[in-house]
Each structure stands twice: as C-alpha cells, then as structure tokens.
Input
Amino acid sequence: MSNPTPTALVLEDEREIRQFVRLSLESEGWLVVEAGTVRQGLIEAGTRRPDLVIADLGLPDGDGVDFIRELRTWSSVPVIVLSARTDERDKVAALDAGADDYLSKPFGTAELLARTRANMRRVRAGRSTTEASFRFGEVEVDLAARIVRRRGAEVHLTPIEYRLLGVLIANADRVLTHPYLLREVWGPGHAERTHYLRVFMGNLRQKLEDDPAQPRHFITETGVGYRLVVDAAEG
Amino acid sequence: MTDDPRPDPDALLAQLRQDEQREARGRLRIYFGSSAGVGKTYAMLVAARKLAAEGMDVLAGVVETHGRSETAAMLMGLPQLPPAQIEYRGKTLAEFDLDAALARKPGLILVDELAHSNVPGSRHAKRWQDVEELLAAGIDVYSTLNVQHLESLNDVVGGITGIVVQETLPDTFFDRADEVVLVDTTAEELIERLAAGKVYMPAQAERAAKNFFRKGNLMALRELALRRTADRVEDDVQAWRSDRAIAQVWKTEGALLCCIGPHEGAEHVVRSAVQLAQQLAVTWHAVYVETPALQRLDGARREGILRTVKLAQELGASTAVLPAQNVAQALVAYARTHNLSKLLLGASQAKAWWPRRSIGQVVAGLAPDIDRIEVGRSEKSRAVSAPPRPVRDDDGAGWAALRPYLWAAAVCGATTLLTHALVPYFDLANIVMVFLLAVVGVGVWLGRGPAVLAAFVNVAAFDFFFVPPHLTFAVADAQYLLTFAVMLVVGLVTGQLTAGLRFQARVATHREARSRALFEAARDLSNMLTIEQAVEVASKVIGREFRARVVVYALDAQDRLQPPLAAADSTQGLDLGTAQWALDHDLPAGLGTDTLAGSAWLYLPLKATMRTRGVLAVRPEEPRYLLVPEQRQQLETFAALTAMALERVHYIDVARSATVQIESERLRNSLLSALSHDLRTPLSALVGLADTLAISQPALSPAQAGLVAAIHERTQRMTDMVTNLLDMARIQSGAIRVRMEWQSLEEIIGAAIKSSQPALDARQVTVRIDPEVPLVECDAVLIERVLANLLENAAKFTPPLSPVAIRVRVVGSEVQLSVHDHGPGVPKGQEESIFEKFTRGEPESATPGVGLGLAICRAIVEAHRGRIWAEAGSGDGATFSFTLPLGVPPAMDLADSMPSVTPAAH
Output
C-alpha cells in the first residue's frame, strides 16, 4: 500500500451498517471516515483524499450514482457500491457512472473484505502494467507476443476472442458491464448486441475453463456483466 | 388487348377468390327449362334419389308436385322438411322454413321454384335469397327455374307470350350457379303432355295458360332457354380456358356504361345493357344523372327512376346517381374515371319541331373516342313494379298552388293602374320598363309560372291600355309588335332565370340545413364521454332530423347488443334478432332492404374504423321518406358519426383504465420497494454486526462464537424469506417485468450454481448441455432465480455430498431444463400441489423454508410461456423440469471480420 495507513470513506445513511463496515475495515488496518449524505460525502472525499470509497446507492439527499459521477470528475479512487435493491439496472447505472464494484445487501464481513482486497490489488497492478505477461489459474497470456497458453499448451483464439480477453485482463477483478464490453471490443454502435458477448464469452470459457458451465475465472454477474477473477479462491 | 398468352392477373385473382369462397360455400345446381311441365322437378328428384341412395344426406326443403303422381312418387322416401306457418293478414300460409333448414344442415337440400316470392313476413322477400343463405352456410342446393323468370329475359318473354311474370331472378344469381342442367322437351311433346293433363294448370289461369302453351310460344321459349344455356356453356368454356392459360378472355377495359334516363323505357335500356355486357363479357356500370330539372320531378316518377337504378344493380351493374348540371359532361367524366369505352343510352326523345342536339350527339362532341350505342324503345315496357301512386288530398294544395298566380295577376293590375297615372309625364318607352320591372319582381318573389303569366298579362295590358288605339288589342303602329315581342321574351327569360335562382337558393338552403344538422350532431356527439350519453344524443338528433323513432344498440363489454332503454311503446315492432343479423352480417336489414323488407324498422350496422360498434334502428313516420337516396345517404352519414362517437367513447374508456392501471402499478411498485428497503436494511446490519462480533478482539469464547454464528445464519435465512415474500408479492401484483434477451443457458446455469454455492456446500453438481441447444430468449435474472431455487431445494432435501445433475436439451419446439437429485423424491400425488404457495413436500419437518420457492419458479416460468413440473421419480430422487420456448436467435455477422487486431491490453 502506498500510505502507511490507507483511508476509506464509508458513505451510508444507516448507522448500524456504517458501524459494521467501519469495524470490519479497521480490523484490516484501515482508517475509516464516515459520511451520511451525498454533500458530506463529497466534502470528505475532497478533503481526506481516501484510498477507497464504499457508497450506498440510496441516500437521504440524493442518489449514490450522482455522487459517483461527481467524484469521478476529479478522482479515480476505487468505489464499491452497496445496493439494497434487487434491480440489476441500478448496479449497471452505478458501474457505468464509474463505480468499480458492488455488493448486494445483506453481505458479510468476509465478502466485504475480499472485494476490498481485490480492488486494492487491481490498483497496485495498474501501476505496474509493464509486465509482458498475465497469469490466471492455469492460463498464461503473453501480451507482447499475443500468445495464450493453457497448461503450457498454446490455445488458438480468434481476433475478437483475444480482444475480449484483453479487455478483461486490463480490468481484471473488476465488474465490466455489457455496454462497456461491447463498446470496447466491437466499438460504438453495438451496445444492443449483448448476444454477441454471450457467444464469445462462451467460446473463451470452452477454451480456457475446465468446466464451462461452472467457470472459475470468467464469472457471470447476471443482469450486470462479467468479471475476470484472477485468484479463483477469492471469487 | 395484348397477344400475351398469359391469363389476365385480375381475372385469375377473381377466379382464386371465387374458388376460395366456393370452398366454404355450398354448390348450387339449377334445373333450367323453357316452361312449366318440361320435367325439371322430376329430373331434380331423380338426381337427388340417386345421391340419397349413395348415402348422401338429402333433404327435400320444398318440392312442388303440382298434383303430378310421377313426381309425388319420386318424392316418396326422401326426408321432407315441414313448412313454416306464417301469419299474414289473418291467414296462415305455408312457406319454406329457412331456419329449420339451416339448423338441420343437410348435405344437399332441394328447393323448388327458385324465382318464387316468399310470403310477406318471411326473412327474405325472394326464395333465391333463402338459397343464397343456405349456400353461404355450406349447404348444397338443387333448384329449378323457368326461362321466363330470368330478369334480363323477362320483357322479351313478355313480348313473345303476352304474359308478364312478376317473379324474377337476377341474372347474376343464375350466372353464379355452379351447374345449370337444361331440361328439354320438344314443343309437340309438351303440348301432348298438356293434353294428357300431365301439366299443372290452376283453374283460374286456365285460359291464359292455354294461350301461353301455344306451339309458337313454346318454340320461342325453348329457343331462349337453349340460347341462354349455350351462353352459359360458353362462359364456362371461357372460364376453363382462362384457368388454363390457353387464351386471355376477360377484358378489363372496354366496359360498358348504361345511361338511365328519366323517361319510361329506361328498364329496357338496362336489360339491353346487361345482355350486351354478357355478350361482350365485360363489366358494366349504370348511372342516372340528376339535373336540377329532374330533381323537381314528382316523388312517384323519381321513385320509378331509382327503382330502375336498383334493377340495374340487381342485374350486376355498378350503379351511381350523379347530381350534375349537364348530363353529357357528367357521363363523359364518369366514363373517363372508370375507363369505360362504350356508352349505351335510350333512343333520343327529341321532338321534331325543336331542333336540339341529343345527349348522344353532345357526348360525341365532347369525347369522340367513346362508342355510343342507342337502344330503340320497346313497344311494351313494363313498369318496374311501381307501387300505386298515392292519392293526393288536393283540396288545400290546389288552392295553395293557385295563390301565386292570383298574386301575379294582382301585381299586373296594380302596375297598370300605376302606369296609367304616369302616362301624362312619361314616354311610352319608359312605361314599358315599369311593366318589365313588374315581371321581374313576380319572377323573383313568386316563381316561374306566375312570371310567365305576368309577362303575358302585362303585354296584353300594355297593348290594351297604352298602345293606340286605346282600349283595343288592335295595334296601329307595327313597331309595337317588336316592343311586345321583346317584352314577352324579357319577361319569360327573367322569369326562367329568377326561378332557377330561387330553385338553387332552395337547394342551397336544403344543403346548408343538412350540413348544419350533421355539424351539430358531430359537435354534440364529440362531447359525450359515456356510451349512454352518446346513445341518447344520437337517438335524439337522428329522431329529430328524420322524424323517426330511433333506437341505438351499443355493444356491451362482451360484445353483445345492449337492449334499448327506451319505453316499450316507442319500440313496438323492434326485433333484437334482426338487429343481431345486421350486426353479424354487417349489412343493413329491415325496411327497404333485401332482408325482412316488411319490417317497419330499418337496421343499420354502425361501422367505425376498427369494427362495427352496434346497430342503429330507425322507424320513420313515413317509410317512403327513407327511400329517397339523399335521405338514406344522410342517415348513413349520421350512422357513421354515431359509430365514430361510440368508438371514441370506447377508446376513452380503454385509455382511462390504462391510466388507472399504470397509476396503481406505480403505487404498488413504490410501496414494494420501500418495504423491501425497510426490511432488508436492518437485516443487513444484523448480518454484518454478527460477523463483526465474530472477528472482534479479544477473540470470543467457543460458546459465544457459536451463538454469533447462529445469529448470522438465522438472519441470513430471515433475509431469504423476506426476499421470497417480496418477490411473491411483486409477481402477484403483476409488477414482475420480464426483460427478454438472447441468453446462453450455460452461463445462467453457471451463475445459478455459483449463487447457490453456500446452500449446495460440498455437493457435486454435474451439468450436461446438448450441443444443439441455441441461445434462448429469456430474462437471465429470473431464470437464474428459478435454477437457484431448484438447486437450493435439492440441497435442502438431500443428504450432504449427494450429487445433483442438471440436464439441458431440445424437446420439440422447446428447450427443457431438468434438475435431478438423489433425495427422497416428491411424495406421490403431490407433484402438482408443491407448486402452490406455502406447500412443502413434508407437512412438518425441521427443514426450513416457507414453501414459496417453487411457487415463484412457476410464476417466472409461466411468464416465459413455459411449463414447470415435478416427477416423483422411481425411488431415485426427484426431478424438477421446466421448459422455455425456442425462438430464432438474431443473426450474427460473425465477424472476425474486424480489420486488424490490436490487443486492448496495455
């Protein structure tokens, strides 16, 4: 970690939840700042410069999505969204606004801490992408030579499959929404063709997973998007 | 015409359409003969008996044996339909029972005497209309017809035999018959049979009939029958040829226009036109051009003309009544728009002493390319069954008609007196002006007749009093003759002109009144917000406008006619059955129509844009009133307005209920999401706090840790229950929204296994998906929910480590997903009831769950138009299966057609 004591901002209007998130994070050595409204959250984020933001979507003075949009105009700090709603579209909206990850209520401490660690690892990895190869499970991707190997054997990918894999690797451990992936892989104007994504994701699973029906790395976030889980144990 | 050997597409299309209609329609065979006694009925019975012997369901609907024993013997053994008894003017008359025949629905029915007129009070005026309905109901019909009953040959036969029959059959109906069988006998044999008493002859008509059965007559009739049959055979041959692309035979151009004139003999022109059209095998139109002068004809004459127009329509013409100033121009314009190249009109009635160009000549000047055919006048033209002219009660009317003339005379007298006083001061030339002024004044105020009278009287008065020698009609100076002539002509012309103006002004007033009535009705109807209001306003407005009793039947929610609310005395004679008929057939019925013409009410279907919205029943005080085409048109416009108003009100209701539905749905959704938030937030806090307690420092004692774990677990279960309850509430309130996308089932299964991992624990899940399973259109979130529920269900009822299998395959037009476990299975007899709410396989058990899971599964699957069921299995666990319909996945331009590959990773 860059700072000796990393700071987390918890933006949540329910006191009990704020309290348990704080206790969980503090047990991992975080310094926790609390806020209960969008206004207060923005002030805290601006003054404390946190290393992580955990934000609820339903706040008394506004929508968490608005907070994220505002925050993203000047900060790239990882944001994890807490959503009490079951509607996946809210999660997609938050992710598209710039959130990095989400947790559906109710969630346990273990889940919260796993997500926190994954996001921090991604931030660290982002700072050293000079690495020429990427590895998850038994798969090794040689980014320079564009060669994919599984258990040492070369796997042939079509150009689109490789491109999709590339986008997933660049955002490893992060939830990528359908519109984002379509835009990155196929270019603008393809946002409606989610079935393309399903077919090519299926192909990647066929080629790179042991059991495509029970994937360990190419994880489906139903109704939201996909996530490439690097360390399958933490998925 | 082109030499292209391909059949004309229009003709082929018409053929196809006819064939299509014929599929469902019954077939009609007509036994056709030259006169009574040739053996038509006998031949029909022979054929029917043969079919009956072959096992066909034959019914004798109505067969006239006319007391002939051979015929009666043939009828024996065939099932016969008892006749209906119809009350008419205190007598009970037997008539063919159409309703019984339709209800009985035989394969073939025998209906003798196709041209017969039904007893008044029957559904249709003519028997052939009964036959039409039988054919429409898919029943085959055998019938008989004599040649003199054919409409187009009616006056020809009348001319030959001197006997005009009133019962006629439209040629179009005859031509539409599927088969015509000619029953032929030589004239000699017929006369022999007559002599032998084998031909029916009613006692009272014996003399006339004897006259009829003269050899010459019979031969002429036989020739007519043979020729008519030959025409038909030729048509059949042509139809056959066109069917097989041998030659193009049907002309779409070159159709015929028949001009119906106001004079007697117009029917003859119409009959000639139909014969010519048949010979040329072209379609034909008949028009009546109504000039202002013709509009002034008295009611009976006009009615006669309109009957001729109707006759033309019955004979198969497209008809029109064109209001216009100039007959020839209107005819040419009509011929041009309808692409008609031949004009048929009656011989000109030009009077020898009045050199005036006939309409035919004017048409020739306007359009030299149109062929004109003039039809000679028939010696003996039969008036088209015109009703007796109503007797006028003339006492008051005669006096009223005379009054303007008396006024004109009085004006002339006053003028003479006035001018007499002026003579000393003015020249005679100016005195004439005053007389002229008087004529013009009379013309303006009193009309043409009085103006003519005034012109003559004033000329006479001027001559008598002012022209020397005074007080005689003698004229000293010849130049006054010119004065008289000019005065007379000016008087007549101004009289004529002003009268024309008056007439046009009256017509304009009439039109204005009609448009205003329409406008007011439209305005009133457009303000109505309920069906009852619209019905009331329409009844009131139409009743006032047509001096009639009006009942509007609107449709209720089940599309049934609502019985009228009006008092019983104002609905006397109203028949719901007829109204229903008009609605079902979308045709007018009752007064003045082909169906139940004897009714006092006219039933008009209320046709709106989308569908028929009800029936308008009108009972005018004066039935003749509605026969005038303008009135009928006006009434139909009112009906259309009413229909539109009813339709608009209907859609107002639809929109209103949709708004209410949207509003209540919105309310329900916000309530549910508020409830969801309020219940879940404290539960989330509980779960989290229990977790926090578990990792707190210093570490908890084992007993304490156990309690914390229990809190966590129970809270988690509580959350699941709340989720289920809320989902069920959502589904039940209809708030569930299915978001269809093309999904990969493999992916959904993977997500479902992952999300039910905590429940499945260490159980092994095997997934087998047939390779041919395509993408399926469904809501991934909901289907994942179904699968997760089924997996958790399997986990709940099976021992730990017992495996679970998921199988996906295509069955017919569906894809079937099954979840199989190795637990105790579903108890026999409960395969269905476990999908009910709050039901579990075992009534009392320690296994948790409120039993909503499967009910939710079923609701979701049914929302996808699929099915879900459980199989009890044979002691080897339970299988839960559900299906989703297969569709056609969208195409993918599979495309590794991307230009170049640049890895997105950096």
The longest strand of chain A covers residues 7-11.
